[in-house]
Amino acid sequence: MIELRCRDFHTVEAGACDECRSLGEYADTRLEKCPYGDEKPTCVNCPIHCYARAEREQMKEVMRYSGPRMLLKHPILAIRHMLEGRKQAPPLKGRGRGP
Ligand code: SF4
Ligand SMILES: [Zn+2]
């Protein structure tokens, strides 16, 4: 999704520009450290919201742009993501809050 927006907004030959790539890497690290593990809700529904403010804003832009476009390109993936998006965050057992 990051690449989708990058291609339309930033001039790059392939993949994503440095800024978008580092946003992608940031998102991957957050995901690796996500205390919910397999039970992970979509980050939008997450009560912890581990993203730093700047990255959270960037990601919101990415979703706003790429969300509807995903629906056209990969309808099944997009619908699955929307359904998962309704899932509430499960209670965290025996772990401290925050990443
Ligand atoms: S925002 Fe919440 S769900 Fe998303 S990675 Fe961070 S802790 Fe996990
Ligand atoms: Zn970019």
Briefly characterize the structure.
By secondary structure, this protein is mostly helical.
Describe this structure in words.
This protein is mainly α and 99 residues long. It has one domain. The chain has four helices and no strands. It starts with a helix and ends in a 14-residue tail after the last helix. The model has no long low-confidence stretch (mean pLDDT 89). Residues 30-31, 34-36, 40-41, 43, 46, 48-51, 99 line the site of iron/sulfur cluster.
Q: What is the strand and helix layout of this fold?
A:
Layout lengths: L1 H8 L8 H16 L19 H21 L1 H11 L14
Q: How many strands appear in the DSSP assignment? A: 0
Question: How large a portion of the residues is in β-strands, by DSSP E?
Answer: under 5%
What class, by secondary structure content? Answer: mainly alpha
Radius of gyration based on Cα positions: 15 Å
Overall average pLDDT? 89
| Oligomer type | single chain
Helix fraction by DSSP (H/I, runs of at least 4): 55-70%
The outline comes out as globular
Task: State the separation between the terminal residues, measured CA to CA.
Answer: 24 Å
Please write the string of helix (H) and strand (E) elements. HHHH
Largest sheet: none
Which consecutive residue ranges, at least 5 long each, have pLDDT under 50?
A: none
Q: How many alpha or pi helices?
A: 4
**Count of domain modules:** 1
List the ions, cofactors and other small molecules found in this model.
iron/sulfur cluster, zinc ion
